[in-house]
Design brief:
Distance between the termini: 43 Å
Strand content: under 5%
Helix content: 55-70%
Largest sheet: 2 strands, antiparallel
Order of helices and strands: HHEEHHHHHHHHHHHHH
Strand order of the largest sheet: 1-2
């Protein structure tokens, strides 16, 4: 995120161009959450499709209300000890004038608040892919509310809030490598260590039911990510946003190609799932680093992330943790890679004059990046595991084994994704009717 600096010698005035640009970027970031829902929804088995979609969509409802009530104040209010913020004017967004500018910038506070809201929405949604097929919807909804409050809002303050300890230390995170991706990836690992594996993990086939849906989701994520990344400079006055935009495209392309090359060498085929996953790995890795590296550096970031994330997704089989849709392998590993590479590849000619090791800056920035990366990782991992444990011991976090086998869509939502009952094609899966319909259709595992 852009540092809180004044853009000009005189006090800034509201810029219609920057304001309009940031509103567009906010909408682009919001579309990433439905894109993520499609991406995840296509990767699960057919009997879990709707639940996977809903786990992302519910975040748009819950986090929005919490952000208005107190989340924005905790994340971006007046600093307290470098740990948390608080400003009474931000509670309920009630003490903010419609033309009141975000400090040092040319956009209204409302615009900054809504842009940051979209980040807060997608971060817990990212976690959902790790717990696919087995989590109660009520338990998940409560987890989202508690996790946003206890983990995301404070971490956002650490990294981006004026006075936050990581911000003051000089940790570079342009658009969310630590606050979003490492945060979500570590949380995913913490939760799955508590709730355990899916029924049939490493025994039953659990292939994606709709690769076209996965590709659609990946395309929406790639599209929306330009707002996510380029918008994080909060304006278009000095070209840094443009650098971030082009680096986003370059790193994503490089990571996709690297993942596909690894996949071909290791498994003998170029898969659509590999292309989609590689693209997301590149998007994740360039998110913290794209304002600090050159376009050639972006290629390096993408290649390293594509290869390491492709290798990392198999670790769940080696170590026995059931990360359903590879949130740990892509978001945690990709976020760590992108954040730490800043310490080597920062040119000193982008978002700041900080240079990495390869550009004569020594290892000072690398150690700062390590501090930010591992502090966020540790806090999110432990706090998320504790929250999941408490929910599991109170209202319950997992559906029953019978419901998981029969299909979580039917158990939790009384719906199924596809209705083939009137198609006459002899399909083996038929949808259960709504309460207003007639005799229930047969439930068949898929």
């Amino acid at each position: 995120m852009a540092p809180a600096i004044t853009l000009a010698a005189d006090a800034p005035t509201l810029s219609a161009a920057n304001t309009g640009f940031m509103l567009i970027c906010s909408a682009l970031v919001l579309i990433m959450t439905p894109g993520l829902a499609f991406f995840y929804g296509g990767m699960v088995r057919v009997k879990s499709t709707l639940n996977m979609l809903m786990m992302s969509f519910i975040s748009m409802g819950i986090v929005t209300i919490l952000w208005v009530l107190y989340g924005f104040s905790l994340a971006f209010g007046t600093d307290s000890g470098g740990i948390i913020g608080w400003s009474s004017d931000y509670v309920g967004l009630s003490g903010i004038g419609i033309t009141q500018l975000w400090d040092g910038y040319t956009i209204p506070i409302y615009v900054f608040a809504v842009f940051q809201l979209m980040f807060a929405i997608i971060t817990p949604a990212l976690i959902s892919g790790a717990v696919a097929d087995r989590v109660k919807f009520t338990g998940w909804a409560l987890f989202v509310a508690l996790w946003a409050t206890v983990v995301y809002f404070p971490v956002a303050h650490w990294v981006w809030g004026a006075g936050g300890w990581a911000f003051e230390l000089g940790v570079i995170d342009f658009a969310g490598g630590t606050a979003v991706h490492i945060n979500a990836g570590a949380a995913a690992l913490g939760v799955i260590l508590v709730i355990g594996k899916r029924v049939g993990f490493k025994r039953d086939p659990m292939r994606p039911h709709s690769l076209p849906l996965v590709m659609l989701g990946a395309g929406l994520l790639w599209f929306g990510w330009f707002g996510f990344n380029a918008g994080s400079w909060l304006g278009n006055d000095d070209g840094v946003g443009a650098l971030m935009f082009i680096n986003t495209q370059i790193a994503t392309a490089a990571a996709m190609l690297a993942w596909l090359a690894y996949e071909k060498i290791r498994h003998g085929a170029f898969t659509t799932l590999g292309a989609a996953s590689g693209a997301v790995a590149g998007l994740v890795a360039i998110t913290p680093s794209g304002g600090a590296v050159s376009p050639l550096g972006a290629i390096a970031v993408g290649v390293v992330a594509g290869l390491l994330c492709a290798m990392a997704v198999g670790l769940k089989y080696k170590f026995g943790y059931d990360d359903s849709l590879d949130v740990v392998g892509v978001h945690l590993v990709g976020g760590v890679v992108g954040s730490l590479l800043i310490g080597f590849l920062a040119t000193g000619g982008g978002q700041s004059d900080v240079a990495g090791l390869f550009y004569g800056g020594g290892l000072d920035q690398f150690w700062k990046q390590c501090a930010g990366v591992f502090a966020v990782l540790a806090y999110s991992l432990v706090a998320s595991a504790v929250l999941a444990f408490l929910i599991d011991k109170t209202i319950g976090m997992r559906v029953s084994e019978d419901d998981e086998i029969a299909g979580i869509d039917q158990a939790e939502h009384a719906e199924t994704a596809y209705d083939f009952s009137g198609g006459g094609g002899g399909a083996s899966f038929s949808a259960a009717p709504s309460p207003a319909q007639g005799t229930p259709a047969k439930k068949v595992d898929a």
